[in-house]
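G., the chain you wanted modeled:
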Amino acid sequence: MSLSSALNSAILGLNAQSTSLGVISGNISNSETVGYKDGKTSFSSLVTTPGSTTQGYSNGVITYTGHNISSQGLIQSGDMASNLAVSGGGLFVVSDSNGDIYYTRSGDFSPDKDGYLVNSSGYYLMGYGLNEDGTPENGTIPTSNGALSRVNLSDLTGSAEATTETSIVANLPADAEVGDEFSVDVEVFDSLGTSHTVTYNFTKTASNEWELDYSDPVLTSDGTTVTGTSSGGPLTITFDSDGNLSSITDNTGTDVTDNATLEVTDWTTGASDSTIVTDLGTSGDDDGLRQYTSKEEDGGMTLYSVGQNGSNYSEIAEVTIAKDGVLSVTYENGGSEPVYQIVLADFPNPDGLTAYSDTVYKESNTSGNYVLKAPGNGGVGTISDYSLEASTVDTTTEFSKMIVAQQAYSAAAQVVSTAGDMYETLISSVR
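Predicted structure as C-alpha cells:
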C-alpha cells in the first residue's frame, strides 16, 4: 500500500466518522420528538486495488445511513383522545396541505380551526367514513390512498333518532269485563328528535279477545297539542286458554303478530312520516302481552315495561378511538355511532422508507409497496388514544457512539498528520 493510499484511506475515515457524528447529533436533538425513529450509520469496507498479494491493498470505508423505522418507541400519555400511538407495526397515512401522501408514527393529532385532525407538523390524518352500522360509507373497504379522506370532526354535530320500534310487556286481566278499557302511554320520537306521546288503547271485546287502537300523537311536553295522525288500528288480539298470545290481526284479517305497525303522518313539526313496528310478543308465548287473572284480582292491567328505540336531539358528549381504529362519537342522550375508520399502512421493509422533514416518510423501491390495513389486522399494530409514541433515541447509547466516533476521527486525523510528516521527509531527501 502506497503512502498516497494510506492518506486516502484516512481521509475516507474522517468523512465516515463525520457522517456518523452528524447522525448522532440528529438523534440527540430529536430525543424528545414524538414518533421520531433514531438514525443509524452503517460502515462497509472499500477496496480500491484488489488482487495484490505482495503490496497489500488500499482499504477505505463507505457509510450508509438510515432510520430504524420499524423499532417501537415507548407509549406515553397524551392530552386528548385524538393523540394516537401505534403499538406494533404500521404507520399512519397523512397528507400535507397540497394533498401529497406521507406516512408517519407522529400521532399528536388535534382538531384545527376547520375540524380536521392535524399533527404538530401540519399533516392531516387520513381514513374513510363509516355508516351507522360500521360498514364503509362508499360501500367498499379502500385499498388505495386515493380512496381515503381527511378525518374531520366539524361535521360531527348533534343527532336525533326517529322511533322505528316499540315494545310492550303487560298482563291484560282475564277477569276484566267485556268493554273494559286500559291504556298505555308510549313515548315516540319523530325524525327531528321531538318527543310525542301515543296512547295505546286496549278494549276487551270478548272472552280471550281484545282490541288495540292508537291515539293521535300529542306533544309530550304539554300532553294536549295534537301533532300528527295515527293509523294502523284497530288490531284484534286473541289469547289461548293458557293465557298466551295466540294472534294479532288487522282490520282486514291479516295476521300481523310479528309486524303490528303504527303509521304516523302529517307531523306538525315538519318531520318525515313514521313507521313504527310494535313488538307485542310471540305467538304461543307470554314474552309480551299475556292474559292472566289480575294481580290483586281487581280487574286491573299490570304493565311491566315499555320500550322504544328513538332518541331526542342531543350534542356530542365524547369522541373515542378504539384499538381497531374506529373513531366513534357518543351523544349526550347515551347513543353512539362509528364515524371514521383510521387505517395503517404496512410495508414489507419499513426501514427502507425515504425520510423527510417533520418525521414523515415516503414509499421507495427499497420499502416495497404499501398495503392498507385496519389496526390489529394482518400483522399491523393496534392504536391507543390519549397516547403518544416517544422518540426511540437513547441518549446514553448516542453519547457512547459519539465517544467512539470521536476516537476514530482522532486516529484518522493522526494518520493524515503522520502521512504529511512522511511526505516532508521524502521531499527533504530529494533536495
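The domain at 161-314 is CATH 2.60.98.20 (Tick-borne Encephalitis virus Glycoprotein; domain 1).

Shout if anything looks off.
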